[in-house]
Amino acid sequence: MSLPQKVTVSEVGPRDGLQIEKTMLPAADKLRLIEALADAGLTRIEATGFVHPKVIPQFADASEVAEALPRRPSVRYAAFIPNRRGAERAVAAGVDDLKCGVAASDTFNRLNVRMDTATGMRSLEEIAEVAAGTPSRVVGVVATAFGCPYEGAVRFEEVDRLFTHLVGLGTDLIYLADTTGMADPSAVKDRVTRLAERHPDTRVGLHLHNTRGLGLANALAGLECGVTDFEGSIGGLGGCPFAPRAVGNICTEDFVHMCHRMGIETGLDLDRLLDAARLAQDLLGRNLPGMVLKAGPADALHDPEGTREKVD
Amino acid sequence: MSLPQKVTVSEVGPRDGLQIEKTMLPAADKLRLIEALADAGLTRIEATGFVHPKVIPQFADASEVAEALPRRPSVRYAAFIPNRRGAERAVAAGVDDLKCGVAASDTFNRLNVRMDTATGMRSLEEIAEVAAGTPSRVVGVVATAFGCPYEGAVRFEEVDRLFTHLVGLGTDLIYLADTTGMADPSAVKDRVTRLAERHPDTRVGLHLHNTRGLGLANALAGLECGVTDFEGSIGGLGGCPFAPRAVGNICTEDFVHMCHRMGIETGLDLDRLLDAARLAQDLLGRNLPGMVLKAGPADALHDPEGTREKVD
Questions:
Q1: How far is B312 from chain A, CA to nearest CA, in Å?
Q2: What's the CA dihedral at B166, B168, B171, B173 to 10 degrees?
Q3: Interface TM-score (ipTM) > 0.85
Q4: Which of A115, B3, B48, B163 has its Cβ near the most Cβ atoms within 10 Å?
Protein backbone atom coordinates (compact mmCIF):
# COMPACT_ATOMS: atom_id res chain seq x y z
CA MET A 1 0.00 0.00 0.00
CA SER A 2 1.53 3.25 -1.10
CA LEU A 3 -0.09 6.18 0.65
CA PRO A 4 0.63 9.88 0.23
CA GLN A 5 2.64 11.48 3.05
CA LYS A 6 0.42 14.54 3.11
CA VAL A 7 -3.02 15.47 1.83
CA THR A 8 -4.91 18.74 1.43
CA VAL A 9 -8.41 18.87 2.80
CA SER A 10 -10.90 21.29 1.29
CA GLU A 11 -13.80 22.10 3.60
CA VAL A 12 -17.19 22.42 1.90
CA GLY A 13 -19.48 22.50 4.93
CA PRO A 14 -20.40 26.19 4.70
CA ARG A 15 -21.56 25.60 1.10
CA ASP A 16 -22.43 21.96 0.31
CA GLY A 17 -23.28 21.40 3.96
CA LEU A 18 -25.53 24.41 4.49
CA GLN A 19 -27.33 24.48 1.15
CA ILE A 20 -29.80 21.79 2.17
CA GLU A 21 -30.38 23.18 5.67
CA LYS A 22 -33.81 24.61 6.37
CA THR A 23 -32.36 26.74 9.18
CA MET A 24 -31.29 30.05 7.63
CA LEU A 25 -28.07 31.02 9.33
CA PRO A 26 -27.29 34.72 9.65
CA ALA A 27 -24.13 35.76 7.79
CA ALA A 28 -22.42 36.47 11.12
CA ASP A 29 -22.92 32.83 12.20
CA LYS A 30 -21.58 31.54 8.89
CA LEU A 31 -18.52 33.72 9.36
CA ARG A 32 -18.03 32.41 12.91
CA LEU A 33 -18.08 28.85 11.56
CA ILE A 34 -15.67 29.74 8.76
CA GLU A 35 -13.31 31.39 11.24
CA ALA A 36 -13.40 28.26 13.44
CA LEU A 37 -12.55 26.17 10.37
CA ALA A 38 -9.62 28.42 9.49
CA ASP A 39 -8.50 28.26 13.14
CA ALA A 40 -8.30 24.46 12.79
CA GLY A 41 -5.77 24.93 10.00
CA LEU A 42 -7.95 24.49 6.93
CA THR A 43 -6.42 26.28 3.95
CA ARG A 44 -9.22 25.58 1.44
CA ILE A 45 -12.71 26.57 2.51
CA GLU A 46 -15.76 26.70 0.24
CA ALA A 47 -17.60 29.53 1.91
CA THR A 48 -20.77 30.09 -0.09
CA GLY A 49 -22.47 29.74 -3.48
CA PHE A 50 -23.26 32.50 -5.95
CA VAL A 51 -26.59 31.09 -7.03
CA HIS A 52 -29.91 32.86 -7.42
CA PRO A 53 -31.46 33.34 -3.95
CA LYS A 54 -34.74 31.89 -5.16
CA VAL A 55 -32.91 28.66 -5.98
CA ILE A 56 -30.96 28.40 -2.73
CA PRO A 57 -32.22 30.98 -0.22
CA GLN A 58 -29.43 30.04 2.20
CA PHE A 59 -26.97 31.87 -0.10
CA ALA A 60 -28.85 35.13 -0.53
CA ASP A 61 -26.02 36.63 1.52
CA ALA A 62 -23.22 35.25 -0.70
CA SER A 63 -21.61 38.62 -1.44
CA GLU A 64 -21.91 39.76 2.19
CA VAL A 65 -20.22 36.58 3.43
CA ALA A 66 -17.52 36.59 0.75
CA GLU A 67 -16.58 40.21 1.38
CA ALA A 68 -16.30 39.68 5.15
CA LEU A 69 -14.25 36.45 5.06
CA PRO A 70 -11.43 36.37 7.63
CA ARG A 71 -8.46 36.90 5.33
CA ARG A 72 -5.32 34.94 6.15
CA PRO A 73 -2.30 34.51 3.89
CA SER A 74 -2.56 30.70 3.92
CA VAL A 75 -6.30 30.33 3.27
CA ARG A 76 -7.95 30.22 -0.16
CA TYR A 77 -11.71 30.69 -0.15
CA ALA A 78 -13.90 29.08 -2.77
CA ALA A 79 -17.50 29.57 -3.82
CA PHE A 80 -19.80 27.42 -5.91
CA ILE A 81 -20.46 29.11 -9.25
CA PRO A 82 -23.27 27.89 -11.54
CA ASN A 83 -22.97 30.47 -14.35
CA ARG A 84 -21.43 33.71 -15.71
CA ARG A 85 -23.48 35.94 -13.45
CA GLY A 86 -22.35 34.00 -10.38
CA ALA A 87 -18.74 34.24 -11.55
CA GLU A 88 -19.00 38.02 -11.96
CA ARG A 89 -20.42 38.41 -8.46
CA ALA A 90 -17.77 36.10 -6.96
CA VAL A 91 -14.88 37.90 -8.68
CA ALA A 92 -16.28 41.24 -7.49
CA ALA A 93 -16.40 39.87 -3.94
CA GLY A 94 -12.78 38.70 -4.13
CA VAL A 95 -13.37 34.93 -4.05
CA ASP A 96 -10.13 33.01 -4.65
CA ASP A 97 -11.48 29.84 -6.24
CA LEU A 98 -14.51 29.61 -8.51
CA LYS A 99 -15.72 26.05 -7.98
CA CYS A 100 -17.67 25.07 -11.04
CA GLY A 101 -18.63 21.90 -12.72
CA VAL A 102 -20.92 19.88 -14.85
CA ALA A 103 -22.50 16.48 -14.29
CA ALA A 104 -21.67 13.48 -16.42
CA SER A 105 -25.40 12.86 -16.83
CA ASP A 106 -27.78 14.89 -18.93
CA THR A 107 -30.75 14.15 -16.70
CA PHE A 108 -28.89 15.21 -13.58
CA ASN A 109 -27.69 18.44 -15.23
CA ARG A 110 -31.20 19.31 -16.30
CA LEU A 111 -32.62 18.72 -12.84
CA ASN A 112 -29.70 20.31 -10.96
CA VAL A 113 -29.01 23.47 -12.99
CA ARG A 114 -31.67 23.35 -15.73
CA MET A 115 -29.11 22.97 -18.49
CA ASP A 116 -28.20 19.94 -20.55
CA THR A 117 -24.58 18.81 -20.43
CA ALA A 118 -23.59 20.69 -23.61
CA THR A 119 -24.98 23.96 -22.23
CA GLY A 120 -23.25 23.26 -18.93
CA MET A 121 -19.94 22.90 -20.73
CA ARG A 122 -20.41 26.28 -22.46
CA SER A 123 -21.30 27.80 -19.11
CA LEU A 124 -17.93 26.60 -17.76
CA GLU A 125 -16.21 28.42 -20.61
CA GLU A 126 -18.04 31.63 -19.68
CA ILE A 127 -16.97 31.27 -16.04
CA ALA A 128 -13.36 30.76 -17.13
CA GLU A 129 -13.62 33.89 -19.32
CA VAL A 130 -14.82 35.93 -16.34
CA ALA A 131 -11.94 34.63 -14.20
CA ALA A 132 -9.28 35.31 -16.85
CA GLY A 133 -7.08 38.25 -15.92
CA THR A 134 -8.47 38.43 -12.36
CA PRO A 135 -6.88 36.97 -9.20
CA SER A 136 -9.66 34.34 -9.10
CA ARG A 137 -9.00 30.92 -10.55
CA VAL A 138 -11.24 28.11 -11.69
CA VAL A 139 -11.41 24.80 -9.81
CA GLY A 140 -13.33 22.12 -11.67
CA VAL A 141 -15.80 19.48 -10.62
CA VAL A 142 -17.18 16.57 -12.62
CA ALA A 143 -20.41 15.66 -10.83
CA THR A 144 -22.13 12.25 -10.81
CA ALA A 145 -18.72 10.92 -11.87
CA PHE A 146 -19.47 7.43 -10.51
CA GLY A 147 -23.12 7.12 -11.38
CA CYS A 148 -26.36 9.07 -11.74
CA PRO A 149 -29.38 8.37 -9.53
CA TYR A 150 -31.64 8.71 -12.60
CA GLU A 151 -29.58 7.27 -15.44
CA GLY A 152 -27.57 4.70 -13.49
CA ALA A 153 -24.09 3.85 -14.72
CA VAL A 154 -22.02 6.73 -16.10
CA ARG A 155 -19.46 5.85 -18.78
CA PHE A 156 -15.81 6.57 -18.04
CA GLU A 157 -15.50 8.15 -21.49
CA GLU A 158 -18.12 10.75 -20.60
CA VAL A 159 -16.32 11.60 -17.34
CA ASP A 160 -13.05 11.90 -19.25
CA ARG A 161 -14.66 14.13 -21.89
CA LEU A 162 -15.82 16.61 -19.23
CA PHE A 163 -12.54 16.34 -17.30
CA THR A 164 -10.64 17.11 -20.54
CA HIS A 165 -12.90 20.10 -21.17
CA LEU A 166 -12.10 21.45 -17.69
CA VAL A 167 -8.36 20.86 -18.23
CA GLY A 168 -8.69 22.93 -21.40
CA LEU A 169 -10.06 25.84 -19.36
CA GLY A 170 -6.79 26.03 -17.44
CA THR A 171 -7.71 24.44 -14.13
CA ASP A 172 -5.01 22.30 -12.50
CA LEU A 173 -7.30 20.67 -9.90
CA ILE A 174 -10.49 18.84 -10.79
CA TYR A 175 -12.64 16.98 -8.28
CA LEU A 176 -14.54 13.87 -9.22
CA ALA A 177 -17.78 14.20 -7.29
CA ASP A 178 -19.71 11.14 -6.15
CA THR A 179 -22.75 13.35 -5.84
CA THR A 180 -25.21 10.75 -4.63
CA GLY A 181 -22.92 8.10 -3.16
CA MET A 182 -22.81 5.59 -6.01
CA ALA A 183 -19.05 5.03 -6.01
CA ASP A 184 -17.30 1.99 -4.60
CA PRO A 185 -13.59 1.55 -3.85
CA SER A 186 -12.89 -0.37 -7.08
CA ALA A 187 -14.60 2.27 -9.21
CA VAL A 188 -12.67 5.03 -7.41
CA LYS A 189 -9.34 3.34 -8.10
CA ASP A 190 -10.22 2.59 -11.70
CA ARG A 191 -11.41 6.10 -12.62
CA VAL A 192 -8.81 8.03 -10.66
CA THR A 193 -5.93 5.95 -12.02
CA ARG A 194 -7.06 6.24 -15.63
CA LEU A 195 -7.68 9.98 -15.40
CA ALA A 196 -4.34 10.60 -13.69
CA GLU A 197 -2.56 8.69 -16.46
CA ARG A 198 -4.36 10.63 -19.18
CA HIS A 199 -3.93 14.05 -17.53
CA PRO A 200 -0.55 14.01 -15.76
CA ASP A 201 -0.46 17.79 -15.20
CA THR A 202 -3.82 17.94 -13.43
CA ARG A 203 -4.56 16.88 -9.86
CA VAL A 204 -7.54 14.53 -9.54
CA GLY A 205 -9.38 15.34 -6.33
CA LEU A 206 -12.26 13.48 -4.67
CA HIS A 207 -15.53 14.93 -3.44
CA LEU A 208 -17.29 12.00 -1.78
CA HIS A 209 -20.64 11.52 -0.13
CA ASN A 210 -21.44 8.93 2.51
CA THR A 211 -24.90 8.09 1.18
CA ARG A 212 -24.42 4.33 1.41
CA GLY A 213 -21.79 4.30 4.15
CA LEU A 214 -18.88 4.02 1.72
CA GLY A 215 -17.46 7.53 2.14
CA LEU A 216 -14.29 6.69 4.05
CA ALA A 217 -13.77 3.38 2.23
CA ASN A 218 -13.86 5.31 -1.05
CA ALA A 219 -11.50 7.92 0.40
CA LEU A 220 -9.11 5.12 1.42
CA ALA A 221 -9.25 3.80 -2.15
CA GLY A 222 -8.36 7.29 -3.34
CA LEU A 223 -5.45 7.57 -0.91
CA GLU A 224 -4.17 4.19 -2.07
CA CYS A 225 -3.97 5.40 -5.66
CA GLY A 226 -2.26 8.64 -4.76
CA VAL A 227 -5.06 11.20 -4.45
CA THR A 228 -3.94 14.13 -2.27
CA ASP A 229 -6.97 16.46 -2.58
CA PHE A 230 -10.10 15.57 -0.66
CA GLU A 231 -13.22 17.51 0.15
CA GLY A 232 -15.11 17.05 3.38
CA SER A 233 -17.84 18.69 5.36
CA ILE A 234 -17.44 19.52 9.03
CA GLY A 235 -19.53 17.21 11.19
CA GLY A 236 -20.73 15.45 8.02
CA LEU A 237 -23.12 18.34 7.44
CA GLY A 238 -24.95 18.36 4.18
CA GLY A 239 -26.58 16.64 1.28
CA CYS A 240 -27.92 17.69 -2.07
CA PRO A 241 -31.42 19.15 -2.31
CA PHE A 242 -31.87 17.91 -5.88
CA ALA A 243 -30.51 14.41 -5.37
CA PRO A 244 -32.97 11.94 -3.88
CA ARG A 245 -32.06 10.77 -0.39
CA ALA A 246 -28.48 12.01 -0.74
CA VAL A 247 -26.71 12.41 2.57
CA GLY A 248 -23.78 14.60 3.34
CA ASN A 249 -20.19 14.67 2.26
CA ILE A 250 -17.65 12.61 4.10
CA CYS A 251 -17.13 14.12 7.50
CA THR A 252 -14.00 16.29 7.54
CA GLU A 253 -12.86 15.40 11.04
CA ASP A 254 -13.57 11.67 10.58
CA PHE A 255 -11.43 11.69 7.43
CA VAL A 256 -8.69 13.67 9.17
CA HIS A 257 -8.82 11.25 12.13
CA MET A 258 -8.37 8.33 9.70
CA CYS A 259 -5.45 10.05 7.98
CA HIS A 260 -3.69 10.85 11.26
CA ARG A 261 -4.14 7.26 12.51
CA MET A 262 -2.48 6.09 9.29
CA GLY A 263 0.39 8.56 9.62
CA ILE A 264 -0.77 10.83 6.80
CA GLU A 265 -0.27 14.53 7.50
CA THR A 266 -3.10 16.98 6.98
CA GLY A 267 -1.69 20.08 8.66
CA LEU A 268 -4.93 20.20 10.66
CA ASP A 269 -5.64 20.28 14.39
CA LEU A 270 -8.21 17.53 15.09
CA ASP A 271 -9.30 19.01 18.42
CA ARG A 272 -10.03 22.35 16.80
CA LEU A 273 -11.90 20.64 13.97
CA LEU A 274 -14.04 18.99 16.63
CA ASP A 275 -14.60 22.44 18.17
CA ALA A 276 -15.77 23.66 14.77
CA ALA A 277 -18.08 20.65 14.39
CA ARG A 278 -19.60 21.37 17.82
CA LEU A 279 -20.07 25.00 16.81
CA ALA A 280 -21.88 23.84 13.64
CA GLN A 281 -24.15 21.68 15.82
CA ASP A 282 -24.85 24.60 18.11
CA LEU A 283 -25.62 26.97 15.25
CA LEU A 284 -27.99 24.51 13.60
CA GLY A 285 -29.48 23.20 16.82
CA ARG A 286 -29.16 19.56 15.86
CA ASN A 287 -26.71 16.68 16.05
CA LEU A 288 -24.51 16.05 13.04
CA PRO A 289 -23.55 12.58 11.78
CA GLY A 290 -19.80 12.81 12.50
CA MET A 291 -18.65 9.74 14.41
CA VAL A 292 -15.47 11.04 16.08
CA LEU A 293 -17.66 13.86 17.36
CA LYS A 294 -19.59 11.25 19.36
CA ALA A 295 -16.90 8.71 20.24
CA GLY A 296 -13.87 10.97 20.58
CA PRO A 297 -10.56 10.25 18.85
CA ALA A 298 -9.23 6.69 19.16
CA ASP A 299 -6.27 7.93 21.21
CA ALA A 300 -8.44 9.61 23.86
CA LEU A 301 -8.47 6.98 26.58
CA HIS A 302 -11.17 6.26 29.11
CA ASP A 303 -10.95 5.89 32.85
CA PRO A 304 -11.79 2.30 33.88
CA GLU A 305 -13.12 3.61 37.22
CA GLY A 306 -15.78 5.55 35.36
CA THR A 307 -17.15 2.53 33.55
CA ARG A 308 -20.50 1.04 34.41
CA GLU A 309 -19.89 -2.05 36.50
CA LYS A 310 -21.29 -5.41 35.63
CA VAL A 311 -23.90 -6.91 37.92
CA ASP A 312 -23.49 -10.48 38.96
CA MET B 1 -5.52 -4.41 -5.64
CA SER B 2 -6.04 -8.12 -5.17
CA LEU B 3 -9.46 -8.84 -3.73
CA PRO B 4 -11.00 -12.19 -2.82
CA GLN B 5 -13.62 -13.51 -5.25
CA LYS B 6 -15.92 -14.59 -2.45
CA VAL B 7 -16.30 -13.84 1.26
CA THR B 8 -18.26 -15.42 4.09
CA VAL B 9 -20.32 -13.09 6.24
CA SER B 10 -21.08 -14.08 9.81
CA GLU B 11 -24.11 -12.27 11.25
CA VAL B 12 -23.79 -11.23 14.89
CA GLY B 13 -26.83 -8.97 15.22
CA PRO B 14 -28.91 -11.34 17.38
CA ARG B 15 -26.02 -11.50 19.88
CA ASP B 16 -23.61 -8.54 19.68
CA GLY B 17 -26.43 -6.38 18.34
CA LEU B 18 -29.08 -7.22 20.91
CA GLN B 19 -26.92 -7.45 24.03
CA ILE B 20 -26.87 -3.68 24.53
CA GLU B 21 -30.57 -3.19 23.73
CA LYS B 22 -32.79 -2.11 26.58
CA THR B 23 -35.81 -3.56 24.79
CA MET B 24 -36.13 -7.20 25.90
CA LEU B 25 -37.21 -9.12 22.83
CA PRO B 26 -39.31 -12.25 23.36
CA ALA B 27 -37.60 -15.43 22.14
CA ALA B 28 -40.20 -15.75 19.37
CA ASP B 29 -39.18 -12.36 17.97
CA LYS B 30 -35.50 -13.27 18.10
CA LEU B 31 -36.29 -16.44 16.20
CA ARG B 32 -38.26 -14.48 13.58
CA LEU B 33 -35.24 -12.24 13.05
CA ILE B 34 -32.89 -15.23 12.85
CA GLU B 35 -35.16 -16.90 10.33
CA ALA B 36 -35.22 -13.74 8.19
CA LEU B 37 -31.40 -13.68 8.31
CA ALA B 38 -31.20 -17.32 7.22
CA ASP B 39 -33.72 -16.54 4.45
CA ALA B 40 -31.32 -13.91 3.14
CA GLY B 41 -28.71 -16.63 2.68
CA LEU B 42 -26.58 -16.17 5.80
CA THR B 43 -24.80 -19.41 6.70
CA ARG B 44 -23.14 -18.19 9.91
CA ILE B 45 -25.43 -16.63 12.50
CA GLU B 46 -24.47 -15.84 16.10
CA ALA B 47 -27.84 -16.39 17.71
CA THR B 48 -27.37 -15.74 21.43
CA GLY B 49 -24.92 -15.71 24.33
CA PHE B 50 -24.68 -18.23 27.16
CA VAL B 51 -23.90 -15.69 29.85
CA HIS B 52 -25.41 -15.31 33.29
CA PRO B 53 -28.83 -13.62 32.97
CA LYS B 54 -27.90 -11.11 35.66
CA VAL B 55 -24.99 -9.98 33.48
CA ILE B 56 -26.93 -9.74 30.22
CA PRO B 57 -30.65 -10.11 30.88
CA GLN B 58 -31.35 -10.11 27.13
CA PHE B 59 -29.92 -13.64 26.98
CA ALA B 60 -31.86 -15.22 29.84
CA ASP B 61 -33.59 -17.21 27.09
CA ALA B 62 -30.35 -18.48 25.48
CA SER B 63 -31.22 -22.18 25.75
CA GLU B 64 -34.79 -21.63 24.59
CA VAL B 65 -33.59 -19.72 21.52
CA ALA B 66 -30.79 -22.17 20.73
CA GLU B 67 -33.04 -25.20 20.93
CA ALA B 68 -35.66 -23.65 18.63
CA LEU B 69 -33.28 -22.38 15.93
CA PRO B 70 -34.55 -23.00 12.38
CA ARG B 71 -32.27 -25.84 11.37
CA ARG B 72 -31.04 -25.81 7.78
CA PRO B 73 -28.23 -27.92 6.35
CA SER B 74 -26.23 -24.90 5.19
CA VAL B 75 -26.47 -22.78 8.35
CA ARG B 76 -24.11 -22.96 11.32
CA TYR B 77 -25.33 -21.24 14.48
CA ALA B 78 -22.92 -19.72 16.95
CA ALA B 79 -23.28 -18.46 20.50
CA PHE B 80 -21.02 -16.29 22.62
CA ILE B 81 -19.47 -18.35 25.41
CA PRO B 82 -17.71 -16.68 28.36
CA ASN B 83 -16.80 -19.77 30.43
CA ARG B 84 -17.11 -23.53 31.01
CA ARG B 85 -20.67 -23.30 32.30
CA GLY B 86 -21.74 -21.40 29.18
CA ALA B 87 -20.04 -23.98 26.99
CA GLU B 88 -21.86 -26.83 28.73
CA ARG B 89 -25.21 -25.12 28.24
CA ALA B 90 -24.45 -24.34 24.58
CA VAL B 91 -23.33 -27.89 23.79
CA ALA B 92 -26.47 -29.21 25.46
CA ALA B 93 -28.57 -26.89 23.32
CA GLY B 94 -26.86 -28.09 20.12
CA VAL B 95 -25.00 -24.87 19.23
CA ASP B 96 -22.62 -25.44 16.28
CA ASP B 97 -19.97 -22.83 17.04
CA LEU B 98 -18.81 -21.77 20.48
CA LYS B 99 -17.59 -18.23 19.94
CA CYS B 100 -15.13 -17.47 22.67
CA GLY B 101 -12.26 -15.14 23.15
CA VAL B 102 -10.04 -13.08 25.31
CA ALA B 103 -9.03 -9.44 25.09
CA ALA B 104 -5.46 -8.37 24.43
CA SER B 105 -5.75 -5.99 27.38
CA ASP B 106 -5.78 -6.95 31.03
CA THR B 107 -7.92 -3.97 32.02
CA PHE B 108 -10.50 -4.72 29.38
CA ASN B 109 -10.66 -8.39 30.37
CA ARG B 110 -11.18 -7.48 33.99
CA LEU B 111 -13.98 -5.06 33.18
CA ASN B 112 -15.61 -7.22 30.50
CA VAL B 113 -15.55 -10.69 32.07
CA ARG B 114 -13.99 -10.08 35.51
CA MET B 115 -10.92 -12.17 34.71
CA ASP B 116 -7.40 -11.08 33.94
CA THR B 117 -5.93 -12.20 30.62
CA ALA B 118 -4.21 -15.27 32.08
CA THR B 119 -7.46 -16.48 33.65
CA GLY B 120 -9.28 -15.77 30.39
CA MET B 121 -6.79 -17.95 28.52
CA ARG B 122 -7.38 -20.82 30.95
CA SER B 123 -11.11 -20.33 30.51
CA LEU B 124 -10.68 -20.82 26.75
CA GLU B 125 -8.99 -24.15 27.45
CA GLU B 126 -11.95 -25.22 29.55
CA ILE B 127 -14.38 -24.27 26.77
CA ALA B 128 -12.32 -26.27 24.26
CA GLU B 129 -12.37 -29.25 26.67
CA VAL B 130 -16.15 -29.11 26.85
CA ALA B 131 -16.40 -28.98 23.04
CA ALA B 132 -13.99 -31.87 22.51
CA GLY B 133 -15.80 -34.99 21.31
CA THR B 134 -19.07 -33.13 20.73
CA PRO B 135 -20.39 -31.82 17.38
CA SER B 136 -19.72 -28.26 18.61
CA ARG B 137 -16.50 -26.53 17.60
CA VAL B 138 -14.62 -23.56 18.96
CA VAL B 139 -14.34 -20.30 16.98
CA GLY B 140 -11.89 -17.87 18.50
CA VAL B 141 -11.87 -14.13 19.02
CA VAL B 142 -9.04 -11.86 20.07
CA ALA B 143 -10.80 -8.78 21.42
CA THR B 144 -9.34 -5.24 21.59
CA ALA B 145 -6.90 -6.49 18.93
CA PHE B 146 -6.26 -2.96 17.65
CA GLY B 147 -6.33 -1.00 20.87
CA CYS B 148 -7.93 -0.83 24.29
CA PRO B 149 -10.07 2.14 25.36
CA TYR B 150 -8.40 2.05 28.79
CA GLU B 151 -4.82 1.02 28.06
CA GLY B 152 -4.45 2.53 24.59
CA ALA B 153 -2.10 0.83 22.13
CA VAL B 154 -2.06 -2.96 22.20
CA ARG B 155 1.21 -4.65 21.20
CA PHE B 156 1.13 -6.95 18.18
CA GLU B 157 3.11 -9.51 20.21
CA GLU B 158 0.28 -9.73 22.75
CA VAL B 159 -2.31 -10.24 20.00
CA ASP B 160 -0.13 -12.93 18.47
CA ARG B 161 0.33 -14.63 21.84
CA LEU B 162 -3.45 -14.95 22.31
CA PHE B 163 -3.99 -15.89 18.66
CA THR B 164 -1.37 -18.65 19.03
CA HIS B 165 -3.10 -19.89 22.19
CA LEU B 166 -6.41 -20.16 20.28
CA VAL B 167 -4.69 -21.95 17.39
CA GLY B 168 -3.39 -24.44 19.96
CA LEU B 169 -6.97 -25.17 21.05
CA GLY B 170 -7.76 -26.45 17.56
CA THR B 171 -9.76 -23.60 16.09
CA ASP B 172 -9.18 -22.89 12.38
CA LEU B 173 -10.93 -19.48 12.33
CA ILE B 174 -10.03 -16.64 14.66
CA TYR B 175 -11.54 -13.19 14.46
CA LEU B 176 -9.57 -10.10 15.36
CA ALA B 177 -12.11 -7.89 17.07
CA ASP B 178 -11.82 -4.12 16.95
CA THR B 179 -14.06 -4.01 20.00
CA THR B 180 -14.22 -0.24 20.43
CA GLY B 181 -13.33 0.99 16.95
CA MET B 182 -9.67 1.84 17.40
CA ALA B 183 -8.39 0.19 14.21
CA ASP B 184 -7.38 2.02 11.07
CA PRO B 185 -6.77 0.55 7.60
CA SER B 186 -2.98 0.51 7.98
CA ALA B 187 -3.18 -1.29 11.32
CA VAL B 188 -5.63 -3.83 9.86
CA LYS B 189 -3.32 -4.61 6.96
CA ASP B 190 -0.28 -4.82 9.20
CA ARG B 191 -1.78 -7.14 11.84
CA VAL B 192 -3.74 -9.36 9.46
CA THR B 193 -0.77 -9.84 7.13
CA ARG B 194 1.65 -10.69 9.93
CA LEU B 195 -0.76 -13.12 11.62
CA ALA B 196 -1.60 -14.84 8.32
CA GLU B 197 2.11 -15.33 7.64
CA ARG B 198 2.73 -16.74 11.10
CA HIS B 199 -0.35 -19.00 11.14
CA PRO B 200 -0.86 -20.23 7.56
CA ASP B 201 -3.38 -22.92 8.53
CA THR B 202 -5.73 -20.58 10.38
CA ARG B 203 -8.15 -18.12 8.79
CA VAL B 204 -7.89 -14.59 10.18
CA GLY B 205 -11.36 -13.05 10.32
CA LEU B 206 -12.38 -9.49 11.12
CA HIS B 207 -15.00 -8.35 13.63
CA LEU B 208 -15.14 -4.58 13.16
CA HIS B 209 -17.04 -1.80 14.83
CA ASN B 210 -17.90 1.52 13.24
CA THR B 211 -17.28 3.60 16.35
CA ARG B 212 -15.26 6.25 14.54
CA GLY B 213 -16.75 5.80 11.09
CA LEU B 214 -13.93 3.56 9.88
CA GLY B 215 -15.82 0.26 9.78
CA LEU B 216 -16.08 -0.19 6.02
CA ALA B 217 -12.67 1.39 5.35
CA ASN B 218 -11.16 -1.15 7.73
CA ALA B 219 -13.14 -3.93 6.05
CA LEU B 220 -11.80 -2.78 2.68
CA ALA B 221 -8.27 -2.94 4.09
CA GLY B 222 -9.03 -6.50 5.21
CA LEU B 223 -10.37 -7.47 1.78
CA GLU B 224 -7.25 -6.03 0.17
CA CYS B 225 -5.02 -8.29 2.23
CA GLY B 226 -7.09 -11.38 1.55
CA VAL B 227 -9.47 -11.67 4.51
CA THR B 228 -12.53 -13.73 3.55
CA ASP B 229 -14.35 -13.94 6.93
CA PHE B 230 -16.17 -10.86 8.16
CA GLU B 231 -18.69 -10.33 10.90
CA GLY B 232 -21.47 -7.81 10.61
CA SER B 233 -24.65 -6.84 12.39
CA ILE B 234 -27.93 -6.43 10.54
CA GLY B 235 -28.89 -2.77 10.29
CA GLY B 236 -25.71 -1.86 12.19
CA LEU B 237 -27.45 -2.93 15.40
CA GLY B 238 -25.33 -3.10 18.50
CA GLY B 239 -22.53 -1.89 20.64
CA CYS B 240 -20.77 -3.10 23.75
CA PRO B 241 -22.26 -2.34 27.16
CA PHE B 242 -18.85 -2.40 28.84
CA ALA B 243 -16.98 -0.34 26.26
CA PRO B 244 -17.47 3.39 26.63
CA ARG B 245 -19.34 4.98 23.73
CA ALA B 246 -18.84 1.95 21.50
CA VAL B 247 -21.23 1.85 18.59
CA GLY B 248 -22.31 -1.18 16.64
CA ASN B 249 -20.56 -3.59 14.37
CA ILE B 250 -20.25 -2.80 10.73
CA CYS B 251 -23.65 -3.04 9.14
CA THR B 252 -24.08 -6.40 7.41
CA GLU B 253 -26.06 -5.15 4.45
CA ASP B 254 -23.83 -2.09 3.92
CA PHE B 255 -20.79 -4.38 3.82
CA VAL B 256 -22.56 -6.77 1.46
CA HIS B 257 -23.61 -3.85 -0.74
CA MET B 258 -19.95 -2.74 -0.92
CA CYS B 259 -18.79 -6.26 -1.79
CA HIS B 260 -21.38 -6.67 -4.53
CA ARG B 261 -20.51 -3.28 -6.05
CA MET B 262 -16.89 -4.44 -6.18
CA GLY B 263 -17.80 -7.78 -7.76
CA ILE B 264 -17.09 -9.83 -4.64
CA GLU B 265 -19.55 -12.67 -4.10
CA THR B 266 -21.22 -13.14 -0.73
CA GLY B 267 -23.92 -15.68 -1.60
CA LEU B 268 -26.39 -13.28 0.03
CA ASP B 269 -29.58 -11.64 -1.24
CA LEU B 270 -29.27 -7.92 -0.51
CA ASP B 271 -33.01 -7.26 -0.79
CA ARG B 272 -33.77 -9.95 1.77
CA LEU B 273 -31.05 -8.61 4.06
CA LEU B 274 -32.79 -5.25 3.85
CA ASP B 275 -36.06 -7.01 4.73
CA ALA B 276 -34.34 -8.49 7.80
CA ALA B 277 -32.97 -5.07 8.76
CA ARG B 278 -36.45 -3.57 8.50
CA LEU B 279 -37.78 -6.40 10.66
CA ALA B 280 -35.11 -5.64 13.27
CA GLN B 281 -36.21 -1.99 13.22
CA ASP B 282 -39.83 -3.00 13.66
CA LEU B 283 -39.06 -5.38 16.52
CA LEU B 284 -36.98 -2.77 18.36
CA GLY B 285 -39.19 0.17 17.47
CA ARG B 286 -36.35 2.41 16.40
CA ASN B 287 -34.27 3.29 13.35
CA LEU B 288 -30.98 1.50 12.91
CA PRO B 289 -27.83 3.16 11.57
CA GLY B 290 -27.57 1.17 8.30
CA MET B 291 -27.10 3.53 5.37
CA VAL B 292 -28.32 1.36 2.47
CA LEU B 293 -31.47 0.89 4.56
CA LYS B 294 -32.09 4.63 4.19
CA ALA B 295 -30.72 5.37 0.73
CA GLY B 296 -31.45 2.11 -1.06
CA PRO B 297 -28.84 0.25 -3.08
CA ALA B 298 -26.78 2.30 -5.53
CA ASP B 299 -28.34 0.46 -8.48
CA ALA B 300 -31.92 1.31 -7.48
CA LEU B 301 -32.63 4.27 -9.74
CA HIS B 302 -34.94 7.20 -9.10
CA ASP B 303 -37.64 8.65 -11.27
CA PRO B 304 -36.66 12.19 -12.37
CA GLU B 305 -40.36 13.13 -12.51
CA GLY B 306 -40.68 12.47 -8.80
CA THR B 307 -37.93 14.90 -7.88
CA ARG B 308 -38.62 18.17 -6.17
CA GLU B 309 -38.40 20.89 -8.77
CA LYS B 310 -36.22 23.91 -8.41
CA VAL B 311 -37.85 27.28 -8.03
CA ASP B 312 -36.54 30.18 -10.08
A1: 6
A2: 60
A3: yes
A4: B48
